[in-house]
Specification:
Structural class: alpha+beta
Shape: globular
Number of strands: 13
Order of helices and strands: EEEEEEEHHEEEEHHEE
Radius of gyration: 16 Å
Strand content: 25-35%
Largest sheet: 6 strands, antiparallel
Length: 214
């Protein structure tokens, strides 16, 4: 097989990640299971990485690859904000991620979703799937669990949701994916990014939204 593959023993973020734009900001969310083949290496992983004050990325693929990419982008955004004296835009962060993933697409296994708020564009969401293409979306889902919830997300997403509606939509979507995908599980971590603040929410396994499971 050609293309990037996990090395023996390399940790994989077989995962469900998601970002949703709402009227005043962005909600990013993810499950917390990290796998090595059929072995669960970590059941409380934080897959939401803050790369600047109001910009987060959600990571799927190789844990090592995505952590390294996020660290590089974080460094460049810090340099940008110091040199320019202003906040970087989400679009700037997304372009940095896209260039790193695309230029190294044969060596990296990384699918990334970027969400955040900036003074120029307000709330925005970008998706970078394997291969390094860049897509601006009102919402984005990724990881192995995402294939189970495309229909649910298409049916229940609406523009200009309220904060609470976006949180509920994200929680329900990730929970549904976790119930079907063996590589997703554990807990749900959320970050709500607005002009004024970043709020983190933790949903433990016994408080997840419940659905019919047969």
């Amino acid at each position: 097989m050609s293309g990037p593959q996990l090395k023996p023993g390399e940790v994989n973020l077989g995962t469900t990640i998601m970002a949703v734009r709402f009227a005043d900001g962005v909600v990013v969310g993810a499950d917390s299971r990290t796998t090595m083949g059929s072995y669960i290496a970590n059941r409380v992983t934080d897959k939401l990485t803050q790369v600047h004050e109001r910009i987060f990325c959600c990571r799927s693929g190789s844990a090592a690859d995505t952590q390294a990419i996020a660290d590089i982008v974080h460094y460049y955004l810090q340099v940008f904000s110091v040199q320019e004296g202003k906040l970087p835009t989400v679009h700037t962060a997304a372009n940095l991620f896209q260039k790193l993933v695309y230029d190294n697409k044969d060596n990296l296994m990384a699918g990334i979703i970027i969400g955040g708020w900036d003074p120029v564009d307000g709330p925005s969401v970008y998706s970078i799937p394997l291969g390094g293409s860049l897509h601006k979306r009102p919402f984005a889902i990724g990881g192995s669990g995402s294939s189970y919830i495309y229909g649910y997300c298409d049916a229940h997403f609406k523009d200009n949701m309220t904060r609470d509606e976006a949180i509920e939509f994200t929680k329900n979507s990730v929970s549904l994916a976790m119930s079907r995908d063996g590589s997703s599980g554990g807990t749900i971590r959320l970050a709500i990014i607005t002009k004024d603040k970043v709020e983190r929410i933790f949903v433990p396994g016994d408080k997840l939204p419940a659905f019919w499971e047969g």
